[in-house]
Write the structure tokens for this entry.
Amino acid sequence: MNYLTEIKLFYDWLEANPLPASAISLWHALMSISNRSGWRPAMKVPYSLLELRTGLSRTTIYRERERLRKMGRIAFRSHGGNTCCTYRLIALESPPVFQIETDSATQSATQFAIQCETQEGTNGDFVLQTAFQNEHIYKLNRDIIKEKIKKKEKLTSTSQERKSCAKKREGQRFNQGQFLDSLDEPWRAVLATWFEYKRLRHESYRSEMGAKKCLSLLRRLSEDDVVLASAIVDQSMANNWAGLFSLRHTTQQCGRQYGQRIGQIMQSKDAQRRQHYIDKLRDAGKTDTETNR
């Protein structure tokens, strides 16, 4: 049986013998299954496979296969259950010749029933197995396509959510220029330097609350001294710190500058602490001597 020839002859035959769309769909499904099974004369086809291929209900399949049988396009034999039925396609390329007084559909069904009795044991199981395999492959492909569509929809929704969140953040972005304009001139310059340093570190303040907290911390550490606040900012920038901290060393302490100087040998912390106490006691002794005089 030639697949393309049968389809062409079938549509030529439809011009004189019109059929509804459901019957045409059922005929095409049976043709496809027969082609995949190697044009077996008798093939067991599950109802679930026909429902999957045609999209028709079980009742519609019963009605349309009976219509195709009466029109002489197929012959079938039901096994009395609700699982499968044995079908045989009647070729249009070399149609069988029947007597005028004999109903062609009845004679075809009778011949097919006899043929099924002889070939059911050998061909039926193979066709049934092939049909189930085809159904399983079709379901797997359908599930894969559905999974791909779900993943694509999920990615699309995620990207849309990210875009909406980005737009919200842009709408609520902190305006540093407006905040700096609200400050006094000395503090404006100090805080502008610190904001620029944080921007270069990619750590800009994102809210006005964070900027206000930074200003209050700088005022507390510097005791509202602009010069000391500028020194605190310079200290953090020189040490590449992410935050603001109080000054570690003052410029003068007890009339002497501590820390490492040019040409000074680096001492351990214990030696520095001990030297500090000695200098402190020496200064205290000098103060007592001057008092007694």
The two ends are 135 Å apart (CA to CA).
